[in-house]
C-alpha cells in the first residue's frame, strides 16, 4: 500500500479542523507530549470523503497504522518508552478512526467483522495501558522483564489488525463483484469495475483476494456481453492487473479466458482501444518473469490466431502506446513458445516491425525498441530470418540500437536502454553466422562500436550483460572479418577465453589508490 505524496503543510492545513478530536485525545492521554523530533511525527488523514473514496481512505489509514506499528517496534528496541507510549496512543486513535469511518460508510458488517473490530480495540487499549505502566516504572530490571510482554502485545495487535484489514478488503471485493454480477446497469457496472481496478492497483495481495473471490470470472462475463462493449477496455485493463498473480491465471484458464481474448483480438468490429487492452492482458499472462504460465495449455491452441491479430495491430497502430502493448505481447509470446517465431516469419512480421522502428510516431522510446529487438533476437535463431533483416535495413537499425542511451536518467529508462544494447548485440551475434549479414555489419562499422562498448564501462552503463553480449558479437564478426580489428583488440577481446576478456574489461573500471 502506498501513501499519496502531498505537501505536508498543505495536508496539515486541509486536515487540521477535521482531526482536532484525534489530536485532543493524543494530548489528554500522553501527557506530556514529547518534544523529541521525529521525521514522521504526525500522520494525519482527512475524515471528509465521498463514497467512492471510502476504500482509498481505508487503505491510507491502514498504511499509516502499519507504518506506526513498525516504528513502535523500532523505538521499543531502543527502549524509548516515552516515544513508544505516545505512538501507541496515536495508533489507538487511528484504529478507532478507521473503524468508525468504515462503519459509517459500509451498509452492513458481518458478525466476524464486529468481533475482530472489538478484539482489535480491546488489544489496542490493553497495549496503551501496558506502555503507560512502563512509562511510570523507572526500575531497569522491571522494564527489561516487561519488554517481552510489550513485544508480545504489539505482535498480537499487528496480527488482529492484519486479520481485520484482510476481512475488510475481502468484503469490499465481494461487494463490488456482487454489483457486477447482479446489475444490468451500464453505470453501476462501470463504477464497480473502476473501483475493482483501483483495488487491484494496491498490490499483489489485493489481486489475490479479488481472484479468490471470483473477480476474473466476473470480468470475463462482462467481456462476453455485447451490451457492455463500451466497458471492454476498462474491464480488460482490470483483468491485466489481476492476472499478475497465480490465482488470477488459474481463474483465467478455468473460464476459457484465452479463447475470449482471441475472439476479441480477431473481431474487427472492436475498437483499437479494446484490441490494445486485450494485447495488454496477453502480454501480462505470457510474461517471461512469471513462473506459473506453464498451465496455459489453451494458449497454444489459439496462438496462431492471437499472433496474427497482434501483428496486424502493430501494423495498423495509430499511436506509440498501442504499438508498445501489441509488440510487448508478441515479444513475450516468442519466449513462451518457439513456434511463435515461425508464425511471425510466415506473417512477414520482421518487415512490419522494422518499418515501424523507422516511424518515430510509433517507436519513440527505449521501451518500444526493447520489445522490437527482443522479437528480432528470438527470431534470429531461424536461418530464414537473416534475409528478412537485410531486406528491411535491419542491420543498420541494430547498429543504431548499440548507441541507445537514456536522455532522462530515469532508472527504468536506463534499464530499458541496457536491454536494447544487449539484445541488439545478441541479435548481431546470432545473425552474423550468415556471411551477408556479417559483411553488412562490418561495412556499418559495428566492430569499432562493439569495441568501445567493451572497453568503456560508461558507454554500456557498467552493465555486465551488455559486455558479454558485445564480446560474443565481436568474436563472431572477427571470424568473418579479422582485418577489422587492431592487434591489441584481437589479443585482449577475441583471442582469450570469453571469461578472461570479460574480467579484463570489468577491471578497466576499477581504480586503485
TrEMBL record:
<dbReference type="GO" id="GO:0008093">
    <property type="term" value="F:cytoskeletal anchor activity"/>
</dbReference>
<dbReference type="InterPro" id="IPR038205">
    <property type="entry name" value="INSC_LBD_sf"/>
</dbReference>
<feature type="domain" description="Protein inscuteable homologue LGN-binding">
    <location>
        <begin position="4"/>
        <end position="49"/>
    </location>
</feature>
<dbReference type="GO" id="GO:0008356">
    <property type="term" value="P:asymmetric cell division"/>
</dbReference>
<dbReference type="Pfam" id="PF19427">
    <property type="entry name" value="Insc_C"/>
</dbReference>
<dbReference type="InterPro" id="IPR000225">
    <property type="entry name" value="Armadillo"/>
</dbReference>
<dbReference type="InterPro" id="IPR039921">
    <property type="entry name" value="Inscuteable"/>
</dbReference>
<dbReference type="GO" id="GO:0009786">
    <property type="term" value="P:regulation of asymmetric cell division"/>
</dbReference>
<dbReference type="InterPro" id="IPR031938">
    <property type="entry name" value="INSC_LBD"/>
</dbReference>
<dbReference type="InterPro" id="IPR045789">
    <property type="entry name" value="Insc_C"/>
</dbReference>
<dbReference type="GO" id="GO:0000132">
    <property type="term" value="P:establishment of mitotic spindle orientation"/>
</dbReference>
<dbReference type="InterPro" id="IPR016024">
    <property type="entry name" value="ARM-type_fold"/>
</dbReference>
<dbReference type="Pfam" id="PF16748">
    <property type="entry name" value="INSC_LBD"/>
</dbReference>
<protein>
    <submittedName>
        <fullName>INSC protein</fullName>
    </submittedName>
</protein>
<dbReference type="InterPro" id="IPR011989">
    <property type="entry name" value="ARM-like"/>
</dbReference>
<dbReference type="GO" id="GO:0045176">
    <property type="term" value="P:apical protein localization"/>
</dbReference>
<dbReference type="GO" id="GO:0045179">
    <property type="term" value="C:apical cortex"/>
</dbReference>
<feature type="domain" description="Protein inscuteable homologue C-terminal">
    <location>
        <begin position="61"/>
        <end position="513"/>
    </location>
</feature>
